[in-house]
Amino acid sequence: MIKNIVLWIVIAVVLMSLFNNFGPQSDRADSSLSYSQFIEAVKTGQVQQVVIDEHIVKGKMQSGQVFKTYAPSDPHLVDDLLANGVEIKAVPPEQPSMLMQLLVSFGPMLLLVAVWVFFMRQMQGGGAGGRGAMSFGKSKARMLEEDQIKVTFADVAGCDEAKEEVAEMVDFLKDPAKYQRLGGKIPRGALMIGPPGTGKTLLARAIAGEAKVPFFTISGSDFVEMFVGVGASRVRDMFDQAKKHAPCIIFIDEIDAVGRQRGAGLGGGNDEREQTLNQLLVEMDGFEGNEGIIVIAATNRPDVLDKALLRPGRF
Questions:
Q1: Whole-structure pTM value
Q2: For residue 303, which phi and psi values (nearest 5 degrees)?
Q3: What is the CATH number of the domain that holds 189?
Q4: In a domain, 227, yes or no
Q5: Number of domains making up the chain
Q6: How many angstroms separate the CA atoms of 312 and 315, rounded?
């Protein structure tokens, strides 16, 4: 809409400019005289009448010839014309049209408003892909619906013990009310440890495929940014989205990127990674319960993880 308004303003200005350039054709038929020739003709009595339009002087000779000339700021021009009996007509200054006045008055303001709205739309996610400058605090977790996950335990080979350990978790996701009626509690999450390529991600997808629940997947490095607080904001947003789709699974791949031992690096309490880890610990097992949300994480470096992340009740 704003782009259309700007376009119409530009078209109107162009049309008015063309209209002013291609005015009455009679003006172009006038023969032009130099100002010196015009004054000489006035003094010799050859000029019958003139029409003064600011610095443009149009007139007619005694012979009927029409002429036009450009008059500089000559204070004696009118006196010379009166002294030689020339009929004088003056054209009042042309007043701009109402449309032109509105364009001149409000055009710059409308243009500024249009630019401001355009940039605000870009900042708030109106750009390509819906990721604007103001959306950097939003979670980058990608959600897969239950019908999008086709992997089941039948597709996972060689992990029989691991499948048995997560079978109760799958049963909880299928029917959480059964455990809640008995007062049972399910762990907040499960940590998958193993060398690269051993099927940690595949097993997590199989859990979601067996349970038929939404599956949020994100990498640990997606939380960490150079701005302090962005990672914690993304953690909060991810859990807010998960609450709306509970019961569900959040899978954090390579959690060691954000879950390293606190106090080992530089920056102290203002370290962005530590801020993100603090928020993750609170969301997993804080005052506010996140019932129906199971966090599954994978890593091949369990030795560098923070002790609070590994304590019973979280992983």
A1: 0.54
A2: -70, -20
A3: 3.40.50.300
A4: yes
A5: 1
A6: 6
Question: What percent of the chain is predicted at pLDDT more than 90?
Answer: 0
Q: With contact defined as beta carbons under 8 Å apart, do 192 and 200 qualify?
A: yes
Quote the domain boundaries for residue 205.
Answer: 138-310
Three-state DSSP state, 301: coil
pLDDT at 284: 81
**Is 258 among the domain residues?**
yes
- Cα 313 to Cα 29, 166, 178, 189, distances in angstroms: 96, 15, 20, 8
Is residue 4 domain-resident? no
- Give a yes or no: residue 177 inside a domain: yes
List pLDDT tens digits, range 121-152: 665 554 434 444 455 556 666 777 767 777 77
DSSP-based helix, strand, coil % in the chain, nearest 5: 50, 15, 35
Instruction: Give tens-digit pLDDT for 151-205.
Output: 778 777 777 777 777 877 787 777 777 777 777 666 677 888 888 888 888 888 8
Q: Which amino acid is at 312?
A: P
Angle at 247 (CA atoms; ends 245, 250), nearest 5 degrees: 80
Identify residue 152 by its one-letter amino acid code. T
